[in-house]
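Worked example (supplementary).
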Amino acid sequence: MPLFEKLIESVIQGEEGSVRECVQQALSDHIPVKEILNDGLIKAINIVGEKFKKSEFYVPDVLWSAQAMKAGIELIQPFFQKSDVPPLAKVVIGTVEGDIHEIGKNLVAMMVEANGFEVINLGVDVPPERFVESVRAHQAKICMMSALLTTTMPTMKKIIEALKEAGLAGRVKTMVGGAPVTKQFALEIGADGYSPDAPGAAELAKEWIAG
Amino acid sequence: MAIGFKSQCVPTYRVLTEDQIKEIHLATLEVLEKVGVRILDEEGIQLLKEAGCQVKNENVLQIPRGLVEESIHSAPSSIQIYNRKGNEVMQLGGDHVYFGLGTDLIYTYDLKTGSLRRSCLQDVVNAAKTGDCLEEIDFIASFALAQDVPTNLMYIECFKALLENSIKPIFFTAAGAEDLSVILQMAEVVAGDEARLREKPFLIHYSEPTSPLSHSKSAIRKLFLCADKGIPINYTPALLAGATGPVTLAGAITVANAEALSGVVLHQRRAKGAPIISGFVATTMDMLTSTAVYGGPEFRLTHSACTDLYHYYGLPVWGTAGASDAHCFDQQAAMEATFSILMGTLEGANLIHDVGYLGQGLIGSPATIVMGSEIISYVKRIRRGFDISQEQIAMEVIQKVGPGGNFLTTESTRRLHRQEHWRPKYMNRDNPDMWKEKGSKTYGERVTQKALEILETHRPEPLPDSVRQKLEELIKKAEKSLMGIKFVV
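After joint prediction of all chains, the assembly is encoded as:
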């Protein structure tokens, strides 16, 4: 099987070890890093996204692919500066103050990372000012916030307002998620976007960066 | 872990204890021996007389208990049913559960207009296609009564439509022995010849005694014809408690069981070891509307008792489920279909018919068949139970993930979620936004859409041209021989 075909298949099947081998092989074959990223890893994760949309893949399958993808990216990341690959866009993510639910948020982080972003994961119970500081310090393009409790949902609005007050509106896009969060709620609190699931969050982030 | 620990839990259900089964069985034998059954066919009377039955008066014969028990023993405990192509598909017996359609519905709840109209041959075609496409439907049947075809040819044309639109086994009725013999000739053409059809039957004839305790001439002639040819027959009464049977459930069960077992006696005396599926329906007559209740709780209780009895006898047993008293595809239809499919499955009936029946056996609805298929799938997941082995308890995974971790990215979740977690096809599990984006549709709308899609897109495997041609010739002959004649009743 040609190398790129094998790489793509390995990402789709979520075979981390095989992805690493393929990427190592590509690097020692002096294949440009940009090509490995775009024609190998990104192409593969896009196929995974399509399969998820068609209900051929379920969430666990997508996450395994994401993990395998991440392993591949880690190998080529050190070469980004030397090649013509622009630095990865940065995403700040966290569970809002008062809430310690983090599995869903971590899955989003994993998926976003697998789709070619650098993720700054702030963890749980994160106060608004930490979101603001982190976005500013990392020049993040996207700020993602999660809440599972209906009582902590209003904190999301506070964070969006704090980002505005800090003069970061227009420079950072905000995305909200969590079981009780709806599109309507996202609109009401002035968030730029919302996703019901981890693969959707990664898709939306890619759209924003591309467009 | 205890020695002999069985790690697989399998939910089952029964209503009768062994003592209670014996009590009903003894009462049934007493009915047959003392009250007797009415036999409206000379050949049937002769056969029973020769077997040692006493004539009580004119055409009522008393059947001795020894003869009943001998017949239960001689009937096969398991019947292998094939599909049109000769592949093994249903092993009727034990607690194997199969689902399929019913027959003869005079009205159809139209998929496109959502209103009632008279059924026609096209509805039989539609039912066959729908049943062929849905994996949870194991056997097909006419579903609709083709009222656009003359009565004497109606069942022949239906059988042809079923043959042409599905490879699944066919559960079928006939007006009399006259058209039944033509239908069996058609089946022989499909199988190759009479011997091959006997060897690999892909059809089950459905005929019935008349409650209380009567066998019509037509029913006996159909029963004998199938016995002679070794064609599986489902010979089962449908009794109405309080009208054609005692009002009490125990009484209704006893009388219906006597009707069914007297059928087994007739059948086995005619051809020892020939395949028969037995059992009965003992439902209630609604005492306000005088209608036959399909969706009531008594139907389920008596049917569960029936299944317990026939498991005890070691005979393949008939079932009814996925049917409703509702006149349209609505919430009542869903509720009654769900209860009946759940109980029919857990009790372990073998040949469960009438999926998609509405209006107390008067109305067919293809969308209700699609809904039934999803309920069957759901209930079969319940029946599959779960395994409590060391591997399935997953102690290692629990230790590895620990408090605060996640199980979603573990290897075991990825490997086992498909087999452990059932997935619906049409039921809603979307979040509110996604549901709105998809048009805020009700379950009924989604299932109706699926039913329409099947009719537009499903292409059943066609019959070979040579077979089709031979069938046409048989039907032409039947037109000449059967048109205008009066069938024996």
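Two points are worth noting when inspecting this output. Chain B has a mean pLDDT of 96. Chain B has two domains: 26-72, 75-384.
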